[in-house]
Amino acid sequence: xxxxxxxxxxxxxxxxxxxxxxxxxxxxxxxxxxxxxxxxxxxxxxxxxxxxxxxxxxxxxxxxxxxxxxxxxxxxxxxxxxxxxxxxxxxxxxxxxxxxxxxxxxxxxxxxxxxxxxxxxxxxxxxxxxxxxxxxxxxxxxxxxxxxxxxxxxxxxxxxxxxxxxxxxxxxxxxxxxxxxxxxxxxxxxxxxxxxxxxxxxxxxxxxxxxxxxxxxxxxxxxxxxxxxxxxxxxxxxxxxxxxxxxxxxxxxxxxxxxxxxxxxxxxxxxxxxxxxxxxxxxxxxxxxxxxxxxxxxxxxxxxxxxxxxxxxxxxxxxxxxxxxxxxxxxxxxxxxxxxxxxxxxxxxxxxxxxxxxxxxxxxxxxxxxxxxxxxxxxxxxxxxxxxxxxxxxxxxxxxxxxxxxxxxxxxxxxxxxxxxxxxxxxxxxxxxxxxxxxxxxxxxxxxxxxxxxxxxxxxxxxxxxxxxxxxxxxxxxxxxxxxxxxxxxxxxxxxxxxxxxx
Length: 503
Ligand code: F6P
Fold this sequence. Notes:
11 strands; 46% helix; 19 helices; 11% strand; Rossmann fold; alpha/beta; binds 6-O-phosphono-beta-D-fructofuranose; six-stranded mixed sheet; five-stranded parallel sheet
C-alpha cells in the first residue's frame, strides 16, 4: 500500500477554493468579527489542556469547509491510517515512518521497550552518581555530539524543560566549527564528563569530526580503557560505533523507521532523559501519544493538526504567503523555532510530487520567529506595518512555572495585545498621523496551553509533526526524505580534499 498520489490542484475542492479565493481575498477580519459575534466561539478547539483559537484567520465557514473537502479529496484519512499502520510511506527511502510507535505504551514494540528500559537504568545510574568516571567521581556534565535531528530536538526539549532538570549540566556540540567544540570543552573536566554521540548514520562528517577531536582531547588526559566510562553512542550503525571504540553496552539503538528530525522520542533523546529523569521523559512521550490519538481519531473539523495545516495551505497557496512566524511567549521555548525549521523545511521543501513530476504550485513554508516579548522589540514592526502577509502562531501558557504572577500577567497581556493589534489595527479609528496607522487584518492562531510540562510539551511537538505530515499529503510530496541535503555534502567533501592539498 502506498500513499495517494493526487495532484491537489486537479481536485474539485481546489478549483472551488480558487473561485472562492477571488470572492474573499480582500475580506477584512474586522468585518467578519463585527458581523458574527459567535465567530471566536465557533472557530476554536478545546482539547485537554489546549485551547486553539483559529478565528483570527482570513476565512469564512465556507473557506474552512472547502479546505476540509480538499483534505478528504486528497485522501488524508487513508494517508493517516497508512502512516500509523507501519506501511513504507517513506517510499523514496523504502522506509516506514513510525516515530509514533516510540510513544505508544499501549502497544509497544519489544525493541522500543527494551531501549526505554536501558535508557531508564542508564539515566538513573548517571543521575544518582552510581556511574563513575575514570577517577571515581560521578558525572557532572553531559555533552551531546550530533547535528540536525540528532541535536535540535534534544537541545530544544532540554532547554524547554529546564525547570524539571536535575543537577547535571547538559551541553550540545553540533557545528563542525572547531571554536564551538573548544568553547564547550574549555568549561569541562575530563573525569566528570560524559559524551553522547548521537548519529543515526554514524557517517555524518560534522559529528564524526567533532567526536574524534573530542576523543583526542579526552585521551590527552585519560587512557583508552577509560573510554568506556565516558563515551556513549546512539546509532543504527553498530559497526561504525565499534570502530570508533564504543562498546555494545554503551550503544543505544536507532531504527530506520524513525527519521532524524522525528527522533527525539528515541534514544536520541538520551540527553533529555538524563537531564529531567526517566519519569519526566516518559511523560513527554505520553503527551505526544495523546496528540497522536487525537490526530488519528478526531474528525477533521475538530482536529488541531489538520486545521492548522489546511490554514497554512490556504495562505501558502492562495494568498501566496512566503512564510509563517511562530512566537512562543515562554523563554523556555527559546530553541523551539530552530527545531521547527528543520521539522518543517527539511520535510516539506520539495519540488517533485509523489508521481515523480515537477510541481507547479508552492510547497514548504518558511518558518521563522522567536520568543515573545523579545520578538515584539525586534521584528514585530514588519508584522504590524510591513507589506507582507505573515500568518503567526502565538503559543502561550496560562500558568507560569515559578508563579511569578506579576511577570506572567504582563507577558500574557502582551500576547493578547499583539493578536488584537494585529487583527484590528487602527482600522476604524481617526488617525492624525498616517505613520501611526495600522491596517490590521493580520492572521494568527493562538495555542494556549495550561502549563509547560513534559506532557504538554510532548503534545505540542507532536501537533507540529502531524501538521507537517498533513501539509505533505495535501501537496502530494514525500515529507519524510531529505535528498536535498546530499549535493552540498558531496561538494563539501570534494572541496575538503582540495583545501587539504593546498595546506
Ligand atoms: O543532513 C541532514 C540530516 O540527514 C538530517 O536529516 C539528520 O537529522 C542529520 O543529518 C543528522 O544525521 P545523523 O543522525 O545520521 O548524523
